Amino acid sequence: MDECGSYPRRTTLPWVVGVTQVLGLTSVVLTGVWMGRYRGGFAWDGSAKEFNLHPLCMVLGLVFLQGDAILVYRVFRNEPKRNVKLLHGGIHLFALIFTIVGIVAVFDFHRASKIPDMYSLHSWCGIATVVLFCIQWVLGLMFFLFPVASAWLRATYLPLHVFCGVVLLVMAIGSCLLGITEKLLFSIMSTYSQFTAEGVLANCLGVVLVCFGVLMVFIITNDDYRRPPHPEEEALSVHFKTLTEGASSPTP
Amino acid sequence: MDECGSYPRRTTLPWVVGVTQVLGLTSVVLTGVWMGRYRGGFAWDGSAKEFNLHPLCMVLGLVFLQGDAILVYRVFRNEPKRNVKLLHGGIHLFALIFTIVGIVAVFDFHRASKIPDMYSLHSWCGIATVVLFCIQWVLGLMFFLFPVASAWLRATYLPLHVFCGVVLLVMAIGSCLLGITEKLLFSIMSTYSQFTAEGVLANCLGVVLVCFGVLMVFIITNDDYRRPPHPEEEALSVHFKTLTEGASSPTP
Questions:
Q1: Which domain holds residue B134?
Q2: Position B44 in a domain
Q3: CB contact, 8 Å: B115 with chain A?
Q4: What residue stretches are annotated with the Cytochrome b561 domain (chains A, B) (predicted)?
Q5: What is the CATH number of the domain that holds B139?
Q6: Within A76-119, where are the H helices?
Q7: Among A120, A200, A242, B120, which residue has the least CB neighbours within 10 Å?
Q8: In a domain, A14, yes or no
Q9: How many domains does chain A have?
Q10: Which of B168, B181, B195, B218 to mutate against chain A (most A CBs within 10 Å)?
């Protein structure tokens, strides 16, 4: 009964993951269309075209790739854990690279246009997300890919790592929504209320990002989609159990 | 060892709940000071003073009270479940009343000032949150307070009710952050970048709301803070177990 009860939900995993990918790619495409079609395109010359790389890189890196890096533990549930860990860290590395390019683009544009930095709520939330994302990436690397921490420390840190990962994804999406609102009011304040195409497109981008976030959190927090225990990992996890009785399972 | 392992975390519950209350009350006070001190105060006359009731009511109702309504299952962990349910529904009723007053205030102000409705990302996210909040409240009432649904249906709906509750709280906070950004850019766009007192105060309000949300989600998702099984409820839950083998515990 237990297996029968959870079987139908397990089979929905490819479908819900598929929907997240459609939503994630749609958000990247909508950002590209918004910046490319309505804001003049992209360049690396200190102009507004360099700023346009900022939203594209943040949506691609800090939202879509960060989300996919988390999802690998659900999608590759039957692959060896070491490989999945490497993929998780690898996608996060790409996410980090796009994030850094996006951050450099906006600071470079501000410097060239003599616009003050870090005064808005978007910038406060955004920079907090980026700094915490970097810390989370370095700690994750040290704790789970390189044998720096003890087994006890790893098992203790794991639930916090998972919680912070979800919080960071939600904070990244929240920061993007603030950025969308800021950009629209800076660019089309006088026509925004007339439901112009650019405003509606950017609003739709925001809605797609919210749907992506809700579905991602649903997948991550749903026990039926969790990685099942594997025999060879079970043998290893005995150490965890002995050392940390009462701690959560070391499978994120 | 199991009990010892979780005991220190359990004792932290009053402290983390205390911090959420300080953060929640601070957010309400900061909103009141922002609207009262910098935006001319409050009235019910269709003017900007009526609009000022909108942020105050939304932060108080849809964030602070909604959060507290969820928290009662953790704070009153040893009270009879029926009483806790009534308190949960009752606080949500107050949250709903403040939310409706806040929504009426902004639509009334828009009508009096001939400002179009529902064109911004803040309004799209906000109205989605309010509509879903109303649906969630009515369904919660029907499923858990009045004997409309079968035990099987209640046990099946419970995890979705809990998930949607957390999503709605996060969406409410996200909508508030969008509203803060919108209000600041409408009111002080030319001086916002000079770190004026009003801008910094409103940014701090945003940061307090984010901290409130993160801590609330931490408490809600932490197994150690969950309501322990009670003997008299265990007897009742046998029905649930028999009917829904493999389903989650009916304790939110």
A1: 20-243
A2: yes
A3: yes
A4: 19-221
A5: 1.20.120.1770
A6: 81-113
A7: A242
A8: yes
A9: 1
A10: B181
